[in-house]
Amino acid sequence: MKITRLLILLLALSVKAFSQDYSDKITLVIHGGAGTITRANMTPEQETAYQAVLNNALQQGHQILKKGGTSLEAVEAAIMVMEDSPLFNAGKGAVFTSEGKNELDASVMVGNTLKAGAVAGVTTVKNPIKAAIAVMDNSPHVMMAGKGADLFAKQQGLQIVDPSYFYTETRYKALQRAKAEEKVELDHTENEKSKLKKAPKTGLKYEEELIFTEGKKFGTVGCVALDKFGNLAAGTSTGGMTNKKYGRVGDAPIIGAGTYANNATCAVSATGHGELFIRSVVAHDISALMEYKRLSLKEASELVVMKKLVDIGGEGGVIALDRNGNISMPFNSEGMYRGYITADGKSEVKIYKD
Ligand code: ASP
């Protein structure tokens, strides 16, 4: 009898020893998009408004982690705060397609199981991040798109809204401006066109490059988190890019491009010119550099964002987090809405380069 008790005690002690507690490492990092975000472009009121939503997102996610919730639950909560705010290009406030519609993309991934879920081009799901989680948890698939994804979300009991819910005047005006610029562009002579040809590296035709001029503020939202169980998770949600063509899908819902999480390496969420992020397989490339080349989180994320992406003209940035709670938030654009909160509640929100 005594021996049995002793054995049970030993077993309990060894289980505790092997299941490391990460409570003092819990961390949450968010972004609200990168792009031409400079002090000159922002009023103090706008700055305060952005900071308030970003801080709220950090707090919501942090509370979940503090209470022993999972990194996935924290990512979902933080992203929902930003999806529900008209300030960001995700959920309410998403940008418009060239047809004047809102088509939303989102994805999630968890680092211990490598499970992932994504939706692309949904038009009626209030919180696309929830739909991505539902695809991961309740379907045999990783990605669902368009009408099917909207229907699936409805069947899952998620909140469905009329497409007009996503409308904001600011984004609609941005579409009109982007369209006007396209028009102006068409009026250029060949000579003027070639003088203006600024981004040959992107491999896009000048006309295509211009489509995204207005999208120079990439207001996508994303979150990466580490929970007390030592599990990483990542999520990204977006309306895509202003004036995108119908059916266009960016990097945000593509696992390995806009989102990736692996306990062996890191969790990453990206924001920027999606086409270039897909071609650079940004999020997985950062993870692969850590796994195969043994680079640190900082080295890997900076190599991809500040060198590899820059070389092909890919503007934007990432947030990245590893299992030790190391944070990296590199971006090659003028600004990136970003912030983090650590186990002790220390938080910081930043917008500009300096
Ligand atoms: N990456 C997003 C996309 O291309 C845009 C963004 O980051 O704002 O759809």
Tell me the major beta sheet: 9 strands, mixed
Percent helix: 25-40%
The CATH superfamily appears as (Glycosyl)asparaginase
Structural domains: how many:
1
Tally of alpha and pi helices = 11
How much beta, percentage-wise?
15-25%
Globally, the shape reads globular
Query: Which kinds of small molecule does this entry bind, naming each only once?
Result: aspartic acid
Structural class: alpha+beta
User: Judging by the overall fold, what is the CATH architecture?
Assistant: 4-Layer Sandwich
The top-level CATH class is Alpha Beta
CATH level 3 topology: Glutamine Phosphoribosylpyrophosphate, subunit 1, domain 1
**Number of extended strands:** 13
Write the element-wise H/E pattern from the N-terminal end onward: HEHHEEHEHHHHEEEEEHHHEEEE
> What is the averaged pLDDT score?
90
- Flag low-confidence runs: 185-200, 205-215
N→C terminal distance: 66 Å
Radius of gyration: 21 Å
